[in-house]
Amino acid sequence: MDLNYRTTNLFPTCIHSLVVSNFDHLQTRLIKESYDLKKIDHVGRQISNSGGWQSELYSIDQSSDTLRSIITNSLQGFTPIQDDVLMIVEGWTNINGPGCHNVKHQHPQCNLAGVFWIKVPSKSGNLVFESPHSFTSYAEINCYTDKFKKDSNSYLNYSYQPVEGQIVIFPSFLSHSVLRNESDEDRISYSFNIKLKYG
């Protein structure tokens, strides 16, 4: 019997990524600025991080000139077309030492979330997204062949390998975690929330 069918993927969950220009010239400065923040507040805050250090939340306008310029320029493609919509960006710096990780979590009270990878040693922990349909479509997704899962990006979980100088932006409702840092160096990133304010 000749089966002739096609698959139409509707309502995708969009993961956006971009690479920061001239990152090689900025990386050393960004690493120093991250450690300078930690010197000001050794304790930091405990949110999703298991071990490691996380700064307090701060507005992008309060960040260093280098970081503010990178994030602001990177978000140009996300600028809302409506004149009455504002983008409010707040973020925090993460320093995950060896053995540290981030437990599964979401970013409530915002519309988009993102991460900017500043220093990512080999084996320092992938970003793992959980499908928003992992409960309701568990059996369905499991019945697909490996080829179909790959061709259609239909997974229960998806492991995203970080790249230094790359920014990834995703819907804030998407559950995600960061795997254990298996390297012997610190992993440094800047995470942020984007709120869309109308009126």
Describe this structure in words.
By secondary structure, the protein is of the alpha+beta class. 21% of the residues lie in helices and 32% in strands. It contains 4 helices and 12 strands; from the N terminus they run E-H-E-E-E-H-E-E-E-E-H-H-E-E-E-E. The chain has helices at residues 23-40, 65-74, 138-143, 146-152, and strands at 16-19, 49-50, 53-54, 58-59, 85-96, 101-105, 112-119, 127-130, 157-160, 166-171, 176-178, 187-198. Strands 1, 3, 4, 5, 7, 10 and 12 form a 7-stranded antiparallel sheet that branches. The protein is globular and about 65 Å long. The mean pLDDT is 92.
- Rg, Cα atoms, Å: 18 Å
Unreliable spans? none
- How many β strands by DSSP? 12
State the helical fraction: 10-25%
Overall pLDDT, averaged? 92
* Count of alpha and pi helical runs: 4
Shape: globular
What class, by secondary structure content? alpha+beta
Summarize the structure.
This protein is an alpha+beta fold and 199 residues long. It has 4 helices and 12 strands; from the N terminus they run E-H-E-E-E-H-E-E-E-E-H-H-E-E-E-E. Strands 1, 3, 4, 5, 7, 10 and 12 form a 7-stranded antiparallel β-sheet that branches. A 5-stranded antiparallel β-sheet has the order 2-6-11-8-9, with no helix packed on it.
Strand-helix topology:
Blueprint lengths: L15 E4 L3 H18 L8 E2 L2 E2 L3 E2 L5 H10 L10 E12 L4 E5 L6 E8 L7 E4 L7 H6 L2 H7 L4 E4 L5 E6 L4 E3 L8 E12 L1
Antiparallel strand pairs: 1-10, 2-6, 3-5, 4-5, 5-12, 6-11, 7-10, 7-12, 8-9, 8-11
Descriptive terms for the model:
199 residues, alpha+beta, 7-stranded antiparallel beta sheet, 5-stranded antiparallel beta sheet
